[in-house]
Design brief:
- This protein is mostly helical.
- It is 58% helix and 7% strand.
- The chain has 5 helices and 2 strands, in the order αααββαα.
- A two-stranded antiparallel ribbon has the order 1-2.
- It is elongated.
- The chain starts with 10 loop residues before the first helix and ends in a 5-residue tail after the last helix.
């Protein structure tokens, strides 16, 4: 049993999260070209239309731009804007569920910070 199941999240949002993590990690920097929709789909076993939807959400949010006939590129400032958006989502959507699960399991901060038990 878990309250944090990733299979409850639509596939395009899971793919978007993979790409967001790669951008935040620095795998793709401002000006870098993202993998083609087909390449990303093949690498992640996804439908290209689903990947296109994930990519479109990045374009809609102003993190990437499309250069016709060339590909999709990370825009300057995308990392900072993405980090702000991801933090907001974590604090409003993810953390309350994590906190509820922590309470449900009767854990406290010491349990969570004890790396010896991990």
């Amino acid at each position: 049993m878990t309250v944090l199941r990733s299979d409850d999240i639509p596939v395009y949002l899971r793919l978007r999260a993979i790409l967001a993590e790669a951008i935040l990690r620095g795998d793709y920097r401002a000006g870098d070209q993202l993998p083609s929709v087909r390449a990303f789909a093949a690498a992640h076993g996804a439908n290209p239309l689903t990947v296109a939807k994930a990519y479109q959400s990045f374009q809609d949010d102003g993190h990437v731009e499309v250069r016709r006939g060339v590909g999709m590129f990370v825009l300057p400032g995308a990392v900072e804007r993405l980090r702000v958006a991801e933090r907001e989502e974590f604090m409003t959507d993810v953390w309350p569920r994590v906190r509820a699960h922590i309470d449900l399991l009767g854990l406290d901060a010491a349990d969570l910070l004890d790396t010896e038990r991990a």
